[in-house]
Amino acid sequence: MGRETEVPQYPLTPANYRIKPSRLGRRLVWGKSLRRPAAIASFYRVVSRLRVARPFAPDVYLPIQGIADMPRPPFLAPVLLALLSAPAAAQAPPRYLIYLHAKIVEETGQRRPTDPAYGVYEYDAILDSLRHAGFIVISDQRPTRTNSDSFATHVARQVDSLLALGVPPEAITIVGFSKGGWIAILASSQLQNPALSFVFMAACGPWAFERPDLHVAGRLLSLYETSDSLGVSCAPLFARRRAGSPTTEIPLSLGLGHGTFFQPRAAWLEPVLTWANLHTP
Predict the structure, then answer these.
(1) Nearest to residue 31, comparing CAs of 22, 41, 19?
(2) What value does the CA radius of gyration of the chain take, rounded to a whole number of Å?
(3) Tens digit of pLDDT per residue, the chain (281 long)?
(4) How far is CA 30 from the centre of its chain?
(5) How many CA atoms lie within 13 A of 78 on its CB side?
(6) DSSP codes of every residue in the chain
(7) Closest Cα to residue 174, out of 158, 198, 200, 194?
(8) pTM confidence score
(9) Which listed site, 29, 91, 110, 251, has its alpha carbon 20 to 30 Å from 146?
């Protein structure tokens, strides 16, 4: 295996950024009017269509790639202003889902890579399925040989940024498959927040069981395919979880091995969405 590269840490927050809309003839400055979680959703949906004018805080970065994976409906200036000024009670509270992809995307640099044994990995189709379920989806495409511990810290900072913006932890779910699931495990151990939700898909194996320093915390769901030799039951990992962290594990038997999670199949997608909506599948 090659040496893993360190990942720069980019907190997911528009705080301290001045945005210059490409279609609006004025500057939109992040301020008190956007501090409500209900307004944040509208802000993020629009950011991908806006042009960053210049930062006025050098230590903050707006991760455009993650934002680009969110829904981007067309907005006119009056509609945008109305959404930002509307009472919070009139808007449905947003729910956030961070999706961490498998290693094959990282290795190939492609968003539809093909594995000779498991077929096409439908990265964008998976993101679309999660968005269509009503979630604000955050997903960064990792570079080759990304260091798992370093990227888990990046994910933890994304979560911390959302929490700092007033998003309740119950509205945040971290979902990871394969290497992405391993990163989700590491992030859970770092965050130690029992109110966050996590889904580990084909994520457990010796790499997790042989790390006695790992103590996952949160609402923990494990999904694995019984015909898969790469990802197995997370029971040994859950045995040393933080107290007060409920767990559920669902074995699937589609006979597709690791490829079970390569496409947005209902067998795994439905329990993930149920869990992210704070219900038990």
Answers:
(1) 19
(2) 19
(3) 444 444 444 444 443 333 333 333 333 333 434 445 555 555 455 444 433 333 333 333 333 344 334 444 443 444 444 445 445 445 678 999 999 999 999 999 999 999 999 999 999 999 999 999 999 999 999 999 999 999 999 999 999 999 999 999 999 999 999 999 999 999 999 999 999 999 999 999 999 999 989 999 999 999 999 999 999 999 999 999 999 999 999 999 999 999 999 999 999 999 999 999 999 99
(4) 23
(5) 0
(6) -PPPBP--------TTEEEE-SSSSS-EE--GGG-SHHHHHHHHHHHTTSEEEEESSTT----HHHHHTS------HHHHHHHHHS-GGGSPPP-EEEEE--HHHHHH--SS-EETTTEE--HHHHHHHHHHTT-EEE---PPTTB-HHHHHHHHHHHHHHHHHTT--GGGEEEEEETHHHHHHHHHHHHH--TTSEEEEES-BSHHHHT-TT----SEEEEEEETT-SSSB--HHHHTTPPTT--EEEEEE--S-GGGGGSS--HHHHHHHHHHHTT---
(7) 198
(8) 0.70
(9) 251
Task: Give the pair of three-digit tokens for residue 71.
Answer: 């829904």
Pair of tokens at residue 272:
């993930």
The token duo for 117 is 């044994």
Tell me the two tokens of residue 151: 């990227």
Q: Looking at the DSSP assignment, which residues form a beta bridge with residue 28? A: 19
Contact 220, 201 (CB under 8 A): no
